[in-house]
């Protein structure tokens, strides 16, 4: 399937999800290009996609260099603190702010305010990155000292399971936490966005109010 057809199908599914949902927030689709070539990423650009996600430094820099200027680049993986210096000024949105040491390094190295999502480990699985749900307030409070960090929203990854109710519950808890932080009216943490949903669960995420879905396999595919 070409990217354009995949995108049409995804947009139709998003549309259907919103018809049955209580919210009418249209999520922005980020094409996760970590499994595919530069050519495939360019095909996504030509299909009209302007938001791209990569989880590794090399892939991120290769796509950033190859895509036109107006591509909005999302870093969605764990960023090593020692790599921050090299890449921070190329990142439009960082989806995985998950520790103080990273925040400190970004603050020191960035030449502008960086849009960040705090990654939250809602499900509490030991294997997952992210701030536990019950420590998010404290973490965001701590970030107020870093003038180059702006918390645009929260991000999570749902557990790998067939249990839709469980996935939905994870997304709902993230939305409620987003609402709670947003209501604090913090200048440095407007916290309006929700980055949640991937190939297998973007429809549930859409129903639960995602503002960004991150789709790899079902949009651009996966090349081994
Ligand atoms: C790989 C990845 C995705 C996309 O995964 P697919 O299942 O291929 O859609 C989304 N978010 C993050 C953080 C990822 O690492």
* Ligand set: pyridoxal-5'-phosphate
Query: Could you name the CATH topology?
Result: TIM Barrel
Tell me how many strands there are.
Answer: 9
Summed over residues and divided by their number, the pLDDT gives a mean of 96
Shape: globular
Low-confidence stretches: none
* SS summary, helix count: 8
Order of helices and strands: HEHEHEHEHEEHEHEHE
* Amino- and carboxy-terminal Cα gap: 17 Å
| CATH architecture classification | Alpha-Beta Barrel
Q: How does the helix and strand content classify structurally?
A: alpha/beta
Q: Approximately what portion of the residues adopt beta-strand conformation? A: 15-25%
Total domains: 1
What would CATH call the homologous superfamily? Alanine racemase
User: Under the CATH scheme, which class?
Assistant: Alpha Beta
| Rg measurement, Å | 17 Å
Describe this structure in words.
Pyridoxal 5'-phosphate (PLP)-binding protein, which is involved in PLP homeostasis. With 224 residues, the protein is of the alpha/beta class. It has a single domain (3-220), classed as TIM Barrel (Alpha-Beta Barrel). The protein contains eight helices and nine strands. Strands 1, 2, 3, 4, 5, 6, 7, 8 and 9 form a nine-stranded parallel sheet that branches. The longest helix is centred in the C-terminal third of the chain and has 19 residues, at 164-182. The protein binds pyridoxal-5'-phosphate. The site of pyridoxal-5'-phosphate (PLP) has 12 residues, from β9.
């Amino acid at each position: 399937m070409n990217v354009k057809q995949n995108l049409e199908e995804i947009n139709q599914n998003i549309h259907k999800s919103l018809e049955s949902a209580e919210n009418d927030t249209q999520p922005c689709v980020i094409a996760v290009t970590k499994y595919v070539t530069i050519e495939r990423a360019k095909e996504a650009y030509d299909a009209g996609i302007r938001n791209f996600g990569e989880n590794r430094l090399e892939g991120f820099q290769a796509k950033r260099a190859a895509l036109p200027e107006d591509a909005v680049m999302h870093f969605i993986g764990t960023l090593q603190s020692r790599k921050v210096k090299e890449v921070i000024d190329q990142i439009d949105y960082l989806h995985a702010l998950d520790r103080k040491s990273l925040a400190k390094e970004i603050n020191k190295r960035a030449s502008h305010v960086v849009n960040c999502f705090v990654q939250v480990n809602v499900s509490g699985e030991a294997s997952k990155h992210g701030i536990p749900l019950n420590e998010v307030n404290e973490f965001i409070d701590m970030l107020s000292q870093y003038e180059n960090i702006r918390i645009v929203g929260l991000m999570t990854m749902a557990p790998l399971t067939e249990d839709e109710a469980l996935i939905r519950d994870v997304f709902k808890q993230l939305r409620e936490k987003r609402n709670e932080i947003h209501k604090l009216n913090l200048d440095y943490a407007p916290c309006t966005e929700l980055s949640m949903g991937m190939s297998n669960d973007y429809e549930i995420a859409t129903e639960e109010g995602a503002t960004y879905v991150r789709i790899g396999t079902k949009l651009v595919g996966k090349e081994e």
